[in-house]
Amino acid sequence: MNMTAILIGLGPLLGWGLYPTIASKIGGRPVNQILGSTLGTMMFAIAFNLINGIAVPTGMNLVWAIISGIGWASAQIVTFKCFTMVGSSRAMPITTAFQLLGASLWGVIVLGDWPSVTAKVIGGLALVAIIAGAYLTVWREHKDAESGSTLKKAIGLLAVGELGYLAYSAAPQAASIDGMHAFLPQAIGMVLVSAGYALALRGHGRNAFTEVVSYKHLFSGLFFAFAALTYLISAQPNMNGLATGFILSQTSVVLATLTGIWFLGERKTPKEMGITIVGLVLILGAATVTVLI
Question: What is the secondary structure of 204-263 as a DSSP string?
């Protein structure tokens, strides 16, 4: 595999790895987080298009790219909600497992990634290992009924949110455009959802458009935008392909989990921390295997 493709494929490790921690650290409600993040992403996308002279696609290519952005923003609202329920260091591994399963199976079954039987077997085992690793990262030494119930609710919400993330990954594949041309329309779709969400909540007495914390999230949006752009390029058939590109991008769960623990006070017991590290190593090892297929 091309070393350039691998490096681009690992771009989301930095961007998506830091994004949830930065967004949680800045604070605010989920509506503040999604509004500021998507506005920051669109600013980044506009600047990228202007600098590189990239034209906005037309017709169904434009529609599919916007649908992709709508899917991501819808799912991310759910994910931000789950951050408030169980913390980013626990929510991220769960959503990673769902996203890996959904997007990778789409890539293999629909798009023909991992074409040989051997590749499918190895890739399938790697997916199982990644999911097992994600489970280890949310294991708790001292369980109680309330925290267990909250975690189950979060898992249910994240499972529903996976539909949006799947649309984010799969919709651009239906368009005859590369990732760089899809980037700005995706950002437009994201802003449409976040603006609609903010407008819908105005009747509850707080206006996200006038709250300063919303615009602080422009900064977190830049991290998401960097990750999104490198992922879109990586997922193209002439680079890593959707299945491998997506798995490479989801190694960001390692950084997201550790920074959530270190910087957000999402505490773990020594035993929990040890098992979490085992889970993260399992995720990294399995992702590395997929690169070698």
Answer: GT--GGG-HHHHHTHHHHHHHHHHHHHHHHHTSTTTT-HHHHHHHHTTHHHHHHHHHHHH
Give the DSSP letter of residue 293. Answer: -
| Cα distance between residue 80 and residue 61, in whole Å | 29
pLDDT value of position 242: 67
Residue 77 CB-half CA count within 13 A: 21
Number of domains in the chain: 1
Cβ atoms of 136 and 276 closer than 8 Å: yes
Question: What single letter denotes the amino acid at residue 251?
Answer: T
Structure tokens at 55: 């034209």
Alpha-carbon distances of 268 from 85, 131, 258, 276, 281, rounded to whole Å: 16, 20, 11, 9, 17
Domain ranges, residue 25: 3-291
Task: Measure the CA–CA gap between 99 and 92, rounded to whole angstroms.
Answer: 10
Q: What is the pLDDT of residue 145?
A: 61
Rg (CA), the chain: 18
- Give how far Cα 277 sits from Cα of 33, 132, 133, 140, 257, Å: 28, 12, 9, 13, 10
101-121: per-residue pLDDT in tens? 777 777 778 777 778 888 888
